[in-house]
Amino acid sequence: MRSSQPSAKDAEAATPPARVVWTVAAVVAATAFALYHATLLPGVDFGDSGSFQTTVGSPILTPRVGYPLYFAIGGAFLRLTGLEPARALNLATSLEAAIACGLFVVVATELAGSVAAAAAGAALMALSYTFWSQSVTAEVYALHLALTLLSLQLLLRWERRPSLIRLSAFFAGYALAFGNHLSIVLAAPAFTAFLLIKAPGGWKSMFRPQVIVIAIAIALGGAAQYLWNVSALWFQPDAPPSIADAFRTFWFDVTKADWRDTMVLEVPRSLLTDHAAMYWFDLHQQFGIAGPVLAFAGLVSLSVRQRARSWLLALLYLANVVFAFSYNVGDTHVFYLPSHLIVALLVAVGIAGLGAFVKRGTVVLATALAVYAGIRGYHDFPALDRSRDLRPTAVLQKLTDGIDDHRAILLVDLNWQVANGLSYYAKSVRPELAVARARDVLLYAPRLVRDNMTAGRQVIASEQATRILKESYGPLLATDPDTASTSLSEFVRAIPRGARYAMCVVKQSQDMAIDRADLTAALLALGTATPLFDPLPAFVIIAGVAGEAPILFEGADRPFRRAALIAGTPVEVRMDAWMTSDTIRRMGFGHIIAARHHTLIVERGVSIVTFDESGSALETGYFSGIFALPRRNLIRTAW
Q1: Were 324 and a residue from 257, 309, 335, 356 both cysteine, which residue would form a disulfide, CB within 3.0 to 4.6 Å?
Q2: Is the pTM here over 0.90, yes or no?
């Protein structure tokens, strides 16, 4: 009796010609690159991105940094383009994201049998909120998805026509992926199960000595990427005494074992319901309602036609969702990206499956999906456009203005995200800076201050560094303000009556507490007599015309979007983060879009902007957060 399941040969025959597929893939990749390049962050960023931008091009890569493949590609791109490191790495990331979009077309065509459905699914993925945001700054996730797709393509290629060479190619692609992000290990259960199910000689054939030797050899080759990291241990002052100690240190650092102990599978039970709600919000943020519905249809369609492939995608999805769901980290949303990739692939399969019931149905549905993705992308474009985002540079310029190793030294104690940006700035933009962490020099701080004063150099400290020095040495060190500072209420009092404004208050961490008294005074100066929420919810928006009652005054603990007309200018308020899970958002926690201008990126703390009728920002201020302009003090000895 003939099987009702299509064979690999039948699937190959139904697939569009390779020339057509790769041509469409190239067009999609080029279009995606143009989009990401148009919205690319022009320079340095805070957080992990700032650390990556600092490291790229360095011949030494420590195990703690990891990501050898990402930095090898970034370093090559830096040398080829000759751009400033931050710009070069941002651009390399956007290119990696575009390649991922092209590979998506190839893999989705293989799964769906329709290049039109694949291209539409690629558009949905390319324009999804989180993927787009991670494709315009220095981040590792675009390359991670590109390598996941490459591994999938090589695996499906082997399935269609099994051979030892094709199997070896899959092993090589998967081993290469480990050089970028170790979370690719989450694909191992799905890939292993698929190989065992589809092995032409039965599952035992995958354990032939020849296969095992090749797999081990290729795995060692993939692991060899990390020799770059291991070798860095001998450049450190406390070099390991033996190879065994080196590899123990390497494994602890590269896998970030100290983080795993406190973050993996460490979500409190009381937050499980909240995390489930966050996941649904995040999924909806990427694809709307249509995405999950079509993905479910795709999974059903694939399970009927090619059950092994349906299990492959289902296991890939589940492994990544469970990991992200249980990972107690401040940027959970980025760890859902691999699962979103699987959803988008299943959407393409769903389009092809549903379209098969009607003549030209796949083309019609694919066109509708592409239009749907385009509308979503058009709506999100202003919020994700970072091409004019110079906020990190402005903060670092303010912090380091007038400082060089001839005139002054700078002592800092900064939020880690800003500190990473400062590391880049001191290395690549202002190498003449003399900067030290206050805690590193705390034991001999008075002597350091006195010696520099004797040498004719000032000692300047950031606000938190000043506090640390005063707590440690009290009257032995004297301080004087070095830069003028403006409070929120003073900023607001300078706003002319009749000016359009929007002020957002986002829940802040304890180390950057919001000054409630100053915030209340600012509201009164704006003409807002309504009492402030107590306690403050996660998000508060106050918007209107200065001197009049606000048009918008709302608070909520969940993300929301509101639209209003402020003095004839259409304004959209977007609160786009889930605050119980998100403490880090590369694209901001929310946005003010006025007349389709990216008027304000909302951050934790207080963010405020005045704008004209066209939506262009006139004055922007950040208070109690990482983008607040820093205050500095002059430190001197008191004797």
Answers
A1: 335
A2: yes
